[in-house]
């Protein structure tokens, strides 16, 4: 049975958050050619990983580790610039933990569990009572303190964060079969025939990739797993199913700890792991009342904020008017004599005259030359779009020149533009 802290004491201060941020995210195609998925830009000024990290900070957790592996430079640079405010003298720590062959000269992180196991000595040196294991690639707001409370009160060996998904979509997730008390009876990784929730035949309970353990118990399990040559050293495939089979695993429903303002009707959680999902989640932020409230000052999304001048809109002539409607426009942007509608412009985007930009996600430093027309696009950072380019009106031509999804979203990168000019 886990130790119970004094009644009312914040459990988060006895916890360490460990963010798994080493994955590529290959379904994002060329967006992850130069960066890991957690480092991909989101929401006009943030990175995807900022949501998990902000949840930890806002929940009261003051010890954080981030495990990195795939093309980690931009992610590490972002963490160093934006998350260096933790103070050791206040018992706060922030460790960036790249795969560095600390256990073996031939061993990078072999799986999600191995990414924690290889740094157990660092974790144990801090002595946290609880470990909150987090995926670094989802968009959501969550109070981990509430999940920690349930973990202690239930006496579980692992508590698994879960979200309700339509039964027909559940095969893409790890799915839990639970009883009436939320105890997990089985954990199925991407099952063809997922089990429905008790009393709700149209909905399944899917893993969010969030786990709470007592640290002593987790260390024991990780050492046992590391010695098992048949294991894939993965939480979803090995660690959690074993605990479900032999111990006590409990589901924590996201709706119980989701952080919402008055305008947020749903318990918002998104896996932006495809180009379509990434585009849609960004564009959704331009709604008058978006499903995700980034303006909540009680639960801010912390990030590295580059020093930039204010956004600027210039020219007010007929046919050449700088304006943006239903859009998010970051600092350093200049919209010069062009129309921007229902779009997200990240830092330092330039839109020159006589352009129309609609349903577009333009990442930092994009330069849009004159007479360009864009719709339903994602443009990677630093891309220079040539004068007169038209994207979003001819599906066949778009597919020949760029990456066009089945839903009609076009991804544009600088190498694609350079091939046009050969």
Automatic annotation (TrEMBL):
Taxonomic placement: Bacteria, Pseudomonadati, Pseudomonadota, Alphaproteobacteria, Acetobacterales
Subunit structure: Homotetramer.
Molecular function terms from GO: glucose-1-phosphate adenylyltransferase activity
PROSITE patterns the UniProt entry points to: ADP_GLC_PYROPHOSPH_1, ADP_GLC_PYROPHOSPH_2
EC class of the enzyme, as a word: transferase
Domain of life the protein comes from: Bacteria
Designated gene of the protein: glgC
Family the UniProt entry places it in: Belongs to the bacterial/plant glucose-1-phosphate adenylyltransferase family.
Organism: Roseomonas elaeocarpi
Protein's job: Involved in the biosynthesis of ADP-glucose, a building block required for the elongation reactions to produce glycogen. Catalyzes the reaction between ATP and alpha-D-glucose 1-phosphate (G1P) to produce pyrophosphate and ADP-Glc.
Pathway connected to this protein: Glycan biosynthesis; glycogen biosynthesis
Protein name (Swiss-Prot/TrEMBL): Glucose-1-phosphate adenylyltransferase
């Amino acid at each position: 049975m886990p130790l119970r802290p004094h009644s009312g004491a914040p459990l988060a201060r006895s916890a360490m958050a460990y963010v798994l941020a080493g994955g590529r995210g290959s379904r994002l195609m060329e967006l992850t050619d130069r960066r890991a998925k957690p480092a991909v830009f989101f929401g006009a000024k943030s990175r995807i990983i900022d949501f998990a990290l902000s949840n930890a900070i806002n929940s009261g957790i003051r010890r954080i580790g981030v495990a990195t592996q795939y093309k980690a430079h931009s992610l590490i640079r972002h963490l160093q610039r934006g998350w260096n405010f933790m103070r050791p003298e206040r018992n706060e720590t922030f460790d960036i933990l790249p795969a560095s062959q600390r256990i073996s000269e031939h061993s990078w992180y072999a799986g999600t569990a191995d990414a924690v196991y290889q740094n157990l000595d660092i974790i144990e040196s801090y002595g946290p009572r609880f470990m909150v294991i987090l995926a670094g690639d989802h968009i959501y707001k969550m109070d981990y303190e509430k999940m920690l409370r349930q973990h202690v009160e239930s006496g579980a060996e692992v508590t698994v964060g879960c979200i309700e998904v339509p039964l027909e979509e559940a095969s893409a997730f790890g799915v839990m079969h639970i009883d009436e008390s939320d105890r997990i009876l089985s954990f199925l990784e991407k099952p063809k025939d997922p089990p429905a929730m008790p009393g709700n035949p149209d909905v399944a309970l899917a893993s969010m990739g969030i786990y709470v353990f007592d640290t002593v118990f987790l260390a024991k399990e990780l050492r046992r797993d590391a010695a098992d040559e048949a294991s894939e050293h993965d939480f979803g495939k090995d660690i959690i199913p074993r605990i479900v089979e032999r111990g006590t695993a409990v589901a924590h429903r996201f709706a119980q700890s989701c952080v919402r303002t008055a305008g947020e009707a749903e318990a918002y959680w998104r896996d932006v792991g495809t180009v379509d999902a990434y585009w849609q989640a960004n564009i959704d932020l331009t709604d008058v009342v978006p499903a995700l409230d980034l303006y909540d000052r009680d639960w801010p999304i912390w990030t590295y904020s580059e020093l930039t001048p204010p956004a600027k809109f210039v020219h007010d002539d007929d046919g050449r008017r700088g304006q943006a409607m239903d859009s998010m426009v970051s600092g350093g942007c200049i919209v010069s004599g062009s129309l921007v509608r229902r779009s997200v412009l990240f830092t330092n985007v330039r839109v020159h005259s006589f352009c129309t930009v609609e349903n577009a996600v333009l990442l930092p430093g994009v330069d849009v030359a004159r007479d360009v027309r864009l719709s339903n696009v994602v443009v990677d950072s630093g891309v220079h779009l040539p004068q007169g380019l038209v994207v979003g009106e001819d599906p066949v031509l778009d597919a020949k020149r760029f990456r066009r999804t089945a839903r009609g979203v076009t991804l544009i990168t600088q190498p694609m533009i350079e091939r046009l000019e050969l």
